[in-house]
Amino acid sequence: MNPLYWRIFILHFLILFIPFLCQAQVVFGEYTEEELALEVVPFEPEAKQVTLYEEANAYFKVNGIYTDYIYRVKVLDDNVEGFGDFRIQFYKGLYLNEDITRLKAQVSYQDGDQRKVVQLSNKIHLKEVDMGEGYFEVRIAFPQVKKGSILEYSYTKMDKGYSILDGWAFQKEIPALVSKYTFKAPDFFQYQMITQGKALQEVAQISEKRNTYSWTLKNIPSLPQEPFVGSLYDYQIRVDGYLFTSQYVKEENLETSDIFYASWKQMATKLMEGTETSTYLGDKVPKAKYPSLIFTDSTQKATAIKVFDYVSKNYKAYSSRWLEPFYTLPDFLEKKEGNSFDKNLLLSHLLKLEGIDSHIVMVNERGKGRSTLIEKPYINQFQSSILLAKIDGQQVFLDATDSTAPFGLVPLRKLVPRGFFMEKDKGRLDEINLQHRSGIIHLVNLEADSTRNLQLSHTLRFMDYEALKGGKYKEAGSYENLLEENGIEKELLDFSYDDQIKEKRMFTMHFKTNIETASEDFIIISPFELSSFAKNLFTQDSRILPIEFDYPIFESFNVNLIIPDGYELDDYPEDQVITIPSKGIRFLFQSDASDKELKISTRVELLKSTFPALEYSDLKFIMESIASKMSEPILLKKL
Fold first, then answer.
1. Residue 17 and residue 349: Cα distance in Å, rounded?
2. Which stretches make up the DUF3857 domain (predicted)?
């Protein structure tokens, strides 16, 4: 689990060794006849691997929480996907905050008529890798991974932090026959356990003192592997927990406790009073400390942009799960590198010196945790920070940690709906209403080159978050590769671009493509094949999980075709307007034709980013309709 930044000064001599609640129901290396004979998972016959048994058993010792883990997995196919590598991540830090001990692993496999066992060697199959910044990873590489093999490993994890539990996911990428989690705390501690999934409520075993918890689930299906899913963490059957109170801090005294947090308001106030954080929030470092810096401009926005650019370019931020600044303000000014809190707090400090109010917002990052936040003061659901500033009377969200994100946008991985607003005496979970207009505008014209061969001239204007994506393709070859990945093989001629991401949150491409003549009598023109909606990605018959797009988006085409001499317009797509019952997406296709010219305008508007699974059939229908319309060609006939 994450190293916890609020220090819990619990007297260690009060905590005596508490043996774990019960031994594992399996013995390492001993397999039942049913396990050896299993070839198909009854409730998920297509599964290629299955967890036969897994368990986490957490308990206290004098120096921290210890958790004994055991995993037993069977391979059910010929392992064409290279299954068999496992990783255990932990944080040593400077003071051995976490450690992995008692690691052992073996594989049992069939060799002809015999079943053999290989005990994994520390030198060959087990490696501890330093990931940097105090993080480590144990890597297990199983040999003899083939149909019928049973892979098994166990270990103990020590964690000096008492406040946040690692938790346990019962549902993972492969199905499980049995999954168990047990946690036992000292009598004088009480933990708030957070369960996700109705199945856990039905099997929960909780002691009368509410200091011992156990859940065992059987026949657990794998997580659905569906496209357009934000974070599978939201849909897992899982349990988490955090230290809530003890007999030494009564519930009525939680609001004034230095140890426990009863509300987001209390948590924000205490965090802002922290040793490092408080140095950024006060006026202890006078403006004279920065004699060469002149930020003041004619408007607050112009001033804020100068401050933002300075911090963004001159200070480094490393990826870290630590939810406090690494350094005090004077130390960070000297070192010029830290984590997201160091950098965004410096940005906040400099804005404050210019009379611009701002405060930190803790956020989770996409794909790393829950997108739906837990309402209780559970800090471990966050991974990073952004900044909320009030500039010229408007709220503006900023993040100085990513040099690719322009002023007024945060990196896509931090574009989340809600966060923890660390405002003194107003700490709260709240909405992150970041205003953006993300989309792509296509301008397409029919031209002739110097040899009178027909070409399409393309201008693609990417806006806001689409500009951050489009800005990666500053060479014709890289964009050609992107098109090829989507089944479009095109040579881009006269390629150029205009990068205005920093100034206008816009990126523009210009290029031309040749038109191939279908026959001596006809020319086929396909002006919409570069559309993001030209291919329907929803091919499943049904859907289990909600459909999640990155953000609301629009795409428009403005096509202008001057009919070349010697040709006439023979056929072109008909007009169409379509939407779905929820109005979450709509499509407009309009044309205006004359003897010498054809003009077509289209617009797709994705008005929300999340659709419930019940709307999948509607979404699939309209996406099929859009893709079909975008694939209809324009036909010119030779006179």
1. 46
2. 71-222
Domain 264-431 is of which CATH architecture? Roll (3.10)
Domain range annotation of the chain:
12-246, 264-431, 439-638
Give the CATH class of 439-638: mainly beta
In 3D, which of 579, 520, 556, 552 has the Cα closest to residue 630?
Answer: 556
- Please write the tens of the pLDDT for every residue from 55-98: 999 999 988 999 999 999 999 998 767 788 999 999 888 788 89
Q: Which residues of 394-410 are buried (b: 16+ CB within 10 A; e: fewer)?
A: eebbbbbbbeebbbbbb
- Mean pLDDT value across the chain: 87
* Band (8; pLDDT cuts 50, 70, 90): very low
CA distance to 296, 354, 399, 500, 517, per residue, from 358 (Å) = 17, 11, 12, 26, 60
Architecture of the domain spanning 12-246:
Sandwich (2.60)
Angle at 551 between CA 545 and CA 555, to 5 degrees: 115
Q: Is the pTM of this model over 0.85?
A: no
Percent of the chain with pLDDT over 90: 58
The first and second tokens of residue 38, run together, are 């299993």
Q: Are the C-beta atoms of residues 137 and 88 closer than 8 Å to each other? A: yes
H or E element, residue 292: none
- Residues 133-153: pLDDT tens digits? 788 999 999 999 999 999 999
The amino acid at 90: F
